[in-house]
Amino acid sequence: MNFAAQLFYSSYLSERLERLYSPRLALKDSEENDPFWQREELHLGPSQPGASYKCCPISNGTVGRRPTLIEPERLKDFGEEELLNGDVKVYDTKVVGGPEIMLMDPPKTRRVSEFRIVPRPPAQYLRFEDISAAAFRIQSGIQKTPCTYSRLSKQYGMEIYLKKEHLHYTGSVKERGVLYLLTSLTQGVIVATDCNFSMAVAHHAVELKIPMFVIMPSCVSSPRLRIYRDYGAMVISYGSTGHDSQNHARHLAKENGYLYVEEDESAAYLAGLGTVGMEIYEQVPKLDAVVVPAAGQYGLLAGTAAAIKHLNSQTLVIGVEPEGFPLLLQSLKTDSPVKDMHSNPNKKLYGDLMERSLGVNTFQLSKKLVDKVITVSEEDSLVAMLRFQEFERSTVDTEGAMGLAAILAGQLPELRGKSSANMELELVRQCVDRALVLDDRVSKFSVQLGEWPGDMAKLLDVLSREDVSYEFLYLCYCKVECVVETRDKSQSAQLRKTLSDRYPSIFWLDR
Question: Where are its TM segments located (predicted)?
């Protein structure tokens, strides 16, 4: 902007300010009758072109005291005449309040007992999420065992699948729970019981590079101790009984900051065992029933049932116990875990069941999830072991054979087998021999022969014609005992009839 333009703008601004803020003391007569909104002073700017006003003083960038634009005389137009004459008119003012607000009575104080307390559902001891987490954690250390169709299906008129848990490194299903339990530990462990659980702990602790000690009494056989050493555990022989070694193991664990481990019903251990149920459900289509042995392995039954019932609540879960130690069945009848079981099971066949107990949590899970609990005899279990060897080419112990034993006894419409091989060879041989006797395929008799040399030859001729295998034991006074093996029950019955007709004095020994 040039100098001329600045001068013109300053002049124009001064005129406007003077016109706006200059006081007017009187009005022209001609303006009294004019409407006030048409009067000149209400319009901005000069009334005529070129007119100007003197500017009022400005301080600090603001205009000084400014008179009101509407003069006191003009207030007549608003009807306030009394104020112009100096008279003051007083108006009576009545303050009208709002509607009265009534406060409510304070709430009545109630006792805690008056409130309805809705109980929260109890937390589940073993959830399916725990089993899934265990399956993910142990998948690299535990192989997924097959669940195959059995050739026994046609013989018994039903589709039978066998979960072959004996294929684990230690031959025991307990490896699943042990491995998941050990993955949460950072300290060394000590075991003092010679069982499948201790073998699983020894193997997987060494694999996880966890310091491992095994305290065993002197009565444990050397081959068993060699197994622990082969796994890589440090074996210490102490005491003459199992109680001596267990007490010493607890003392060493306390003094050295180790963890004394024994089979229990911890949630981690049961979750690892429950992975069996997940694999069964994945491998077998249209699953109707799962039969689980429960001889000293109630955690396996509870964990498997928790997985199966979550995946399909319509699938039956059946537990099988030996007749000589029906701990779970008696506990269900009394509605509480039985502590003292007055029975004497065959320890060689079923392990040391007398020291096993049923925990509260395992009992509650079994009570809620297991549909049926049955018992099988020792004889049926032995015959089932024989069937496994003949048809499945698998060596299983009596606990693993109890599922098939339930079918042999005619107690189940459908079966799901579960097996584990954990028996010494000598015991397996004894079990097979007895199973052959129970199946009427091995018979033993004694007979009194005459003094003539041809009497023995005649007996041998009868046995040869019957096409049986035999073994003689010669006793004094021409008395002999003979063990014969037949193909099946029908041949055994025919042999008994033939020998009884020929030798009335024959005596068949008890099975």
Answer: none
The reply to whether 323 and 374 lie within a common domain is yes
Cα 390 to Cα 140, 185, 406, 408: the distances in Å are 33, 43, 18, 15
Is residue 473 a contact partner of residue 446, using CB atoms and an 8 Å limit?
Answer: no
CA 178/CA 54 separation, integer angstroms: 106
Q: Which helix (H) or strand (E) holds 190?
A: strand 189-191
273 and 355 co-located in one domain = yes
pLDDT tens figures, 85-110? 455 555 555 655 556 666 666 666 65
Rounded distance, CA 329 to CA 320, Å? 9
Q: Quote the tokens at residue 59.
A: 């301080």
Does some domain include residue 208?
A: yes
- pTM of the complete model: 0.61
Exposed (0-12), middle (13-18) or buried (19+): which is 72, by Cβ within 10 Å? exposed
**Of 285, 308, 309, 305, nearest to 294 (Cα)?**
305
| Burial letters 141-168, b for 16+ CB under 10 A, else e | bbeebebeebebeeebebebbbbbbbeb
